[in-house]
Amino acid sequence: MLGVKSRNLGTVPAAKGGATSTSGGGGGMTAWELRPCGMLVQKRNSDVNQSQNVVPTIKVKVKYCSSYHEITIKSQATFGELKKMLAGRTGLNPLDQKLVYKDKERDSKSYLDVAGVKDGSRMMLFIDVMRQEKRLVEDLKSAKMDKAKLPLMEITSEIDKLAKEVGNLEREIYGGKKVNEKVLLNLIELLMSQLIKLDGIVGDGDVKLQRRMQVKRVQKYIENLDLLKIQNSKIGISKGKISFEQKLVSSMEKQRDSMKWPLVVTTEWEKF
């Protein structure tokens, strides 16, 4: 088969699966491909760059205690990604791992290729005891906070219900409607019981802050109920006084009328 002549590039031998050629001007290598129609054309730069940017995969050997673990990983991965893969093999939390390569502990954010890790490289894995203890303490605190949050949420829900009852009583009493005093006293007792429950919750951070807010909230409702008791006791008193005075005046008038002497007109003064 005759060669294909290309302008400025000289004669390029045709190949069935594709070929490479040197350019006439710069002496660099140029990639070619054979199209289905039989034409031999130059490869696009995007295809060439894509093939050149493929990240190679490497195998590293990690010794942990008396065992060796062979991990297949991308050469441009981080030591943190390697720790995550080792967690599945060793059962060790990535946060508790200490990876040593070339007698130096490697940071989780560092890249393997930058540190010089290659295919077949070896490294050591140790347990970071201090970091593990610190993490366990933090996990324990977090568990205690989660445990305290549940009863606090339940108490808050109860306080919300009692707050609605306080609001209903305020509308009734300040609207002039007299309420049975036992209702007010019972509501105060229920709020006091919520204060006792809040006193039993122990926690730090957000739990402590939420507990303090709920305590102040309950105390405010109790103060409002004390004022409502005073206001409720005044309802109907003024009307009662007026009716009592009216009855008193009426009875005195009747008594005075009964004691009046009959008027007698006579000229017989001696008899009178």
TrEMBL record:
InterPro entries in alphabetical order: BAG_chaperone_regulator (IPR039773), BAG_dom_sf (IPR036533), BAG_domain (IPR003103), Ubiquitin-like_dom (IPR000626), Ubiquitin-like_domsf (IPR029071)
Q: Is Chaperone one of the keywords UniProt gives this record?
A: yes
Q: What are the annotated GO cellular component locations? A: cytoplasm
Annotated Pfam families: BAG, ubiquitin
Q: Name one GO biological process term.
A: protein stabilization
Q: Which Gene3D superfamilies match?
A: BAG domain, Phosphatidylinositol 3-kinase Catalytic Subunit, Chain A, domain 1
Looking up PROSITE patterns in the UniProt record yields: BAG, UBIQUITIN_2
Residue ranges occupied by any BAG domain in the UniProt entry: 155-229
Tell me the superkingdom of the source. Answer: Eukaryota
Please name the GO terms that the record assigns under molecular function: adenyl-nucleotide exchange factor activity; protein-folding chaperone binding
Q: Which residues form the Ubiquitin-like domain?
A: 58-125
UniProt entry keywords in alphabetical sequence: Chaperone
Q: Annotated region Disordered: where? A: 1-28
**Would I find Cell membrane among this entry's keywords?**
no
Q: What is this protein called?
A: BAG family molecular chaperone regulator 1
Q: Which organism is it from?
A: Deinandra increscens subsp. villosa
